[in-house]
Write a structure and sequence with these properties.
heterodimer; A: 397 residues; alpha+beta; 4-stranded antiparallel β-sheet; 13 helices; 38% helix; B: 291 residues; alpha/beta; 7-stranded mixed β-sheet; 9 helices; globular
Chain lengths: 397, 291
């Protein structure tokens, strides 16, 4: 699960990570109040930052420096409600509903520090770099020697010498070294305590007056661990998610919207990806990823159809179920039930394979639902190709 | 021969009396797997499915000679179950549970490694050696005894590949679902190593997917050590970057973990690459019949 920058910073502050003061605002008035409060505490300049889950906010015009409380008002007026387009939002952009008003610090030096899981070693890795403020992926590609890494053995934990190596690696000394060491330890503690999958500070800065601070913060949480973090689970912002994906989640379906013309509904994530691939090979483009999980009941299948059909780009639907524990005849009944309740106005191809596949196919074919059934994956692919061809003909005539 | 499980396998089911554990234990018994005991803490001394229930795995090992464990324990307690099984001295631990927090899996993984135990999964369909033992949740009827080893990160996609192989006339020596999580006990390399050393296995089908670098590591291993033909398919060519495709591990990030890179690595290593998931069986047949 993703959280906003202001939420990430709140979490980090609670764990003793040094973060400049900042206040979240939902309206222009709140933003002005926030700036006034920060000014009363000694801030003389501010940064107004759009709070959306995507990165690249600055380039899209969602981050502005303000020299006065009045300037905060102007920027807040411009940013709140804007449709912010970044390289991560897609063309449609993301509506800005909240902004973070924060004290602007005078930056002497920018660094990077991040904690994540190294899957190859099955342990956490802490990465630091003197190349802060740019995308770490770019640094990794162009000058990998500028990234220092320390791997944390989970049976012994993060050791002080590792923190020293990282902080010395940034070329720091004296008080800045001590602050950076504390920062890294606190960041790592926070990452572990909240079951994060990523905790990334970019940039981490050394200010003109010698403080180490997190100017930006990105945290992703492990969905599988939210059961033991009820408070963090509440930080979820459904506005930042595709409404169809949210609806799917409520039905226990895993759905991801894509840009193609053939919808698909599959049991199992791996088979779902393979089905997307086969749609492409059949001459279409997948309109979605949709894993109905283990049940594939009439209810879930119906919910799946409804979600797929909300996408006007869908010209055909391929249902691909490999029945193992789920019997195909039951899935077939589910498809027939669902199809009775919904008006499916595009070609429907249903491929059932595995336990009771023949019975399932017979049920489908003897029903009055307009569909094409298949047992082999290649048959299903051929039928997708035919359906798309037929769609073209109809469109042309 | 075969790998990991065979007719001498004596299975203990952790989470035996729960609905999942019960259902799949019944299926395994029906297949002929020697399920010798179950573990449900607090229910020791009872009998379930005509098998003894113990409070701890070590009792099942000591009293019933269990040497393989299969885990159906809910996610919050599953990492503990893995460590308990490894500590009790079973040789193979197969964890079916999906949704274990990564933080719990890290120490469990390293503990298991230190013990020298084979951990399969978590979040996997299990292991089957057709005709000998099914220690998992896969539909038994699609499998047939034979000489092709199957390794896969997925569940239903494994069934798809196996079904195509069986239809093409190629049974399986053993099929291993290694799981779709970011941290898994047995990786492609480990399973390849076992298949290379197994007399019964003449070829290996490897089903990968986007995310991570396990397929690239497998490619390097194939090039250096595999004398048997390897067939590779990678799911997720059409998946967009930065999105998690159902499996926690299936994500393309920062340009790495793409299907293209994995296909290319396998191809360069001398594996036969199958780009169309509908043609896995046909491709294997074509190559093995010609050889």
């Amino acid at each position: 699960m993703k959280v906003h920058e202001y939420q990430a910073k709140d979490i980090l502050r609670e764990h003793g990570v040094s973060v400049p003061p900042g206040i979240v605002a939902h309206t222009v008035e709140e933003a002005v109040e926030a700036a006034q409060k920060l000014a009363d505490e000694g801030a003389s300049q501010f940064v107004v930052k759009a709070q959306i889950h995507a990165g690249g906010r600055g380039k899209g015009g969602g981050v502005k420096l303000a020299g006065s409380v009045e300037a905060v008002r102007e920027h807040a007026e411009a940013i709140l409600g804007m449709n912010l387009v970044t390289h991560q939002t897609g063309e449609d952009g993301q509506k800005v509903r909240k902004i973070l008003v924060t004290e602007a610090v005078d930056i002497a030096q920018e660094y990077y520090v991040g904690v994540t899981l190294d899957r190859e070693r099955s342990m956490n890795v802490i990465m630091i770099s003197t190349e802060g403020g740019v995308e770490i992926e770019t640094v990794a590609e162009e000058s990998p020697e500028k990234i220092l890494k320390e791997w944390v053995d989970p049976t012994i934990g993060l050791m002080p010498f590792q923190i020293r190596r990282l902080a010395f690696g940034l070329g720091l000394e004296g008080d800045a070294f001590k602050q950076a060491s504390r920062f890294i330890q606190s960041l790592y503690n926070a990452y572990e305590a909240i079951d994060a999958t990523i905790a990334e500070i970019n940039p981490l800065v050394l200010t003109d007056d010698g403080r180490i601070e997190a100017v930006d913060a990105k945290i992703n949480l492990d969905d599988n661990a939210l059961f033991r973090h009820k408070d963090l689970a509440e930080l979820r912002d459904v506005h930042e998610e595709d409404p169809r994906e949210v609806e799917a989640g409520e039905h226990g379906l895993s759905y991801i919207k894509l840009d193609g013309n053939v919808g698909c509904m599959v049991n199992g994530a791996g088979l779902a990806m393979a089905t997307m691939d086969i749609i492409k090979l059949a001459g279409g483009e997948p309109a979605n990823f949709l894993d109905v999980g283990g049940s594939a009941s009439a209810e879930t299948v119906e919910a799946g159809f409804r979600i797929i059909l909300k996408d006007p780009a869908v010209e055909a639907i391929l249902v691909n179920i490999f029945g193992g524990i789920v019997r195909c005849d039951r899935v077939a009944k589910g498809v027939i039930e669902a199809a009775k309740n919904i008006d499916i106005d595009v070609p429907l191809i249903v491929r059932l394979q595995g336990t009771n596949a023949e019975e399932g196919k017979q049920l489908l074919e003897s029903s009055d639902i307009d569909l094409q059934s298949a047992i082999l994956l290649k048959e299903a692919a051929d039928k997708v190709t035919q359906a798309l061809g037929r769609g073209d003909t109809v469109a042309a005539s | 021969m075969s790998i990991l499980v065979d007719s001498d396998t004596r299975v203990v089911v952790q989470g035996f009396t729960g609905s999942e554990g019960t259902f799949h234990a019944e299926q395994m018994i029906e297949y002929g797997t020697k399920v010798v005991a179950g573990v449900t803490p607090g229910k020791g001394g009872q009998t379930h499915l005509d098998r003894p229930v113990f409070n701890t795995v070590s009792e099942a090992v000591e009293q019933e000679g269990a040497n393989v464990s299969i885990i159906f324990v809910p996610p919050p307690f599953a990492a503990d179950a893995i460590v308990e099984a490894a500590d009790a001295g079973v040789e193979v631990v197969i964890c079916i549970t999906e949704g274990i927090p990564v933080k719990d899996m890290k120490p469990a993984y390293h503990f298991v490694q230190k013990k020298g135990v084979h951990l399969i999964g978590p979040n996997c369909p299990g292991v089957i050696t057709p005709g000998q033992a099914k220690v998992g949740i896969m539909p038994a009827m699609i499998f047939e005894e034979g000489s092709v080893g199957v390794i896969s990160r997925s569940g239903t996609l494994t069934y798809e590949a196996v079904d195509q192989l069986t239809r093409a006339g190629y049974g399986q020596s053993t099929a291993v679902g290694i799981g779709g999580d970011p941290i898994i006990g047995t990786r492609f390399i480990d399973a390849l190593k076992l298949f290379e050393a197994d007399d019964q296995t003449e070829a290996v089908v490897l089903i990968g997917e986007i995310g991570g670098s396990a397929e690239e590591e497998a490619a390097a291993y194939i090039q250096a050590h595999m004398s048997k033909p390897v067939f590779g398919f990678i799911a997720g060519r059409t998946a967009p970057p930065g999105r998690r495709m159902g499996h926690a591990g299936a994500i393309v990030s920062g340009g790495s973990g793409t299907a293209e890179a994995k296909f290319a690595a396998l191809e360069a290593a001398g594996a036969v690459v199958v780009k169309n998931p509908a043609l896995i069986g046909d491709t294997v047949k074509e190559h093995l019949a010609a050889a």
